[in-house]
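User: Need the bound-state model for coproporphyrinogen III:
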Amino acid sequence: MNKASPHAEQPHSGHSPSWASGQPAGSACICSNSRSSLHPVQYLVRWVIVATSSVRRNPGTGVGRNRVAADSGMASQRFVGSAAACLYAAPGRLRETSPDARRCETIRDVTARQAESAFLQACRREPVPYTPVWYMRQAGRSLPEYRKVRQGVSMLDSCTRPEVITEITMQPLRRYDVDAAILFSDIVVPLRAVGIDVDIEPGVGPVVDTPVRGPADLGRLRALEPGDVPYVTEAVQLLVAELNGRPLIGFAGGPFTLASYLVEGGPSKNHDRTKALMYGDPELWHALLGRLAEITISFLHIQVTAGASAVQLFDSWVGAVSPDDYRHAILPHTSRIFAALGSAGVPRIHFGVGTGELLGLMGEAGADVVGVDWRIPLDEAVRRVEPGKALQGNLDPAVLLAPWEVIEQRAREVLVRGRTAEGHVFNLGHGVLPETDPGVLARLTDLVHAESIRPKPGRP
Ligand code: CP3
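Assistant: Bound-state model below.
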């Protein structure tokens, strides 16, 4: 059995039990400064479930892992506000316990296991039983089973089929004991959904037939409605049911990255046309980014409403701009996106490649977690990002192509440096490379968990 499988651990990971916090049965509360908790009966039920969960063989590596076969499925309520202002009530029946309670906002039901997730705890900078891990682009071309599902189906068509989305999103979780799933979709899905003639060409990336170059093009970027992406809502709902409480990360493209595909008409090395528009026509630039921010807000809201428990904004190519230009030309739009998501009560992650000089500003924009690529060590990132933020990252994906001894040593270094952050989610510095051996990712996941396990309180 795999010693390092934290998901096989007992559900109670060293938190104060709910009966100690005075929380009534049938409820759990997630506040920025309070921990999830369980009633003794729920705790017992979950302990039995976990203790009897089946051991599945990992198809990629042959490494056995315990999986939670079922969850108590207990619905709970999520509140925003101070711990004192939290309401505790059975689902659907709110009971006010203080005048402050009116400030609390019920967001949506979460399962008790989500409330306890190490991933969400790290994002919120709470104590964790071990360092959580997931991988950007964990679903996709590095998996043979992905290539099989995708045979004969175009990338963007596969993003409109809820069963396909669900299957591909789950594929990495059958191989790796990662702490979160990320929805299978693409940053251009909402653009296509509002009528932009974008397609994803295999081996190339997003290509836009009619690029956005003048004010007249803005009209093509209409607002995104939930009815434009019913398949996203359905897929997220299917996934939340299947994930048994393991968090699902929703995502969207950041304003600069989306603008780049629209303006350039396809992938670009230096984003010259995009930056020329940013420098040369600020009015059109802000109008464009304003519309993209609207679409992004709506796309993220749709995912959170359907059940995603965190969101990541991929402004992958924003590292192409200077800090000054970022502050004036991009940050206002990114801030608006994160502010609009604030009331949703889910952690907001912000990531871009080559953004070492922008990390402070990316945090300032309102992210709870700042994603770091491999160019900046995490302890240096801690110095660049204001207090009150967790970090995510940052093993160079190319390291995974080196011998295991190198991977192991580099991963340990990331963990050690990550301990200097208020919260750390282990990840790569960018997406999984297509040529990565899935067995290596499975082994790395277990290493991260085993190396980072924290002693239970009260144990020597
Ligand atoms: O992380 C995941 O596994 C979830 C799925 C996901 C995809 N795209 C699927 C995809 C995510 C999170 C994205 C985000 C995305 N898409 C980004 C931001 C992340 C990053 O890499 O910086 C960007 C810039 C895009 C745009 C995009 N889509 C590019 C540049 C490409 C081509 C590169 C490539 O990997 O082929 C795509 C296509 C794409 N998106 C694929 C997948 C699985 C490959 C399509 C295929 O298999 O034919």
